[in-house]
Give the backbone structure.
Amino acid sequence: MNDDVELTVLMPCLDEARTVGACVAKARGALAELAVAGEVVVADNGSGDGSQKIAASEGARVIAVERRGYGSALQAGIRAARGRYIIMGDADDSYDFRAFWPFLERLRAGQDLVLGNRFKGGIRPGAMPWLHRYVGNPLLSGILRVLFRASVGDAHCGLRGFRRDAILSLSLESSGMEFASEMIVKAVLHGLKISEVPVVLYPDGRNRRPHLRSFRDGCRHLALLCSTRIAAYGSAF
Ligand SMILES: Nc1nc2c(ncn2[C@@H]2O[C@H](COP(=O)(O)OP(=O)(O)OP(=O)(O)O)[C@@H](O)[C@H]2O)c(=O)[nH]1
Ligand SMILES: [Mg+2]
C-alpha cells in the first residue's frame, strides 16, 4: 500500500470493451476534479474483447486475474489496491463514477463499509429487470436483514466503498456474484460500521446479456446467507 494514495476506484471487468473506457475516464476525471489522491484499477478476468487495452489507455492500472468470477476479480483487485479506501463499481457504465463523493465523505468520517442503495437513489427505466427489482433483490435483501439483523436496503448494489484493511480482515472467499452478500454479512458479524447512500442505476451500455444469471446467482446468494448464518451460530456455541 502507498501512503500517497487515498482512494482506489476498483472495477471488475469481463468483456466490457464498449463501456470500460468511459467508466475509467469518468472516475479519473472525478479524482482530478475533486483533488483526491487516487488511482483506478481494473481487475480483468481475461477479457477477449480488448477491454484491458482500452482501460489502460484511459489511465487505469489493469490487474490480470486468472481465477474466474466477479468475487475472484474483486478479491485480487482489493489486494492490489494502493488506496486506504476503495470504491468498487461495475465496468458496464450502469453507475456514474463521478458520483463517488458521498462514499468518500462517509469513509473519511469513520465508516468501514458504505453501500449504495438504488431503491433510494433511483432506477432509470430499463436499468434493472422487473424480476430483480420487485422479486429477487427485495427477497434476498429481506432474508439478509432478518438473518443478520442488518438495516441494508439493497444488498446487491455493485457500487460501494470501504476501508481496505477492514474488508481484508474479513478474509472473504466467494468467487462469484455472491461475493456481494458475503461482504455485507461478514461485515455485520465482525461489527463493522456500515451505512448506505442513495445511488442512481442507469441502463448499462452493453449490447449483450449481463454476466449475472438470475436463478443461478440468486441461489448462490441464498446459499451463502444460510451457510454463513449456520456457521456463525455454530461458532457461538
Ligand atoms: N473480472 C470479472 N468481472 C466480472 C465477472 N462477471 C461480472 N463481472 C463484472 O462485474 C460487473 C457486474 O457484472 P454484471 O453482469 O453487470 O452483473 P450485474 O450488474 O450484477 O447484473 P445486471 O444488473 O443484470 O447487469 C461488470 O463490470 C462485469 O464486467 C467475472 O467473472 N470476472
Ligand atoms: Mg450490470
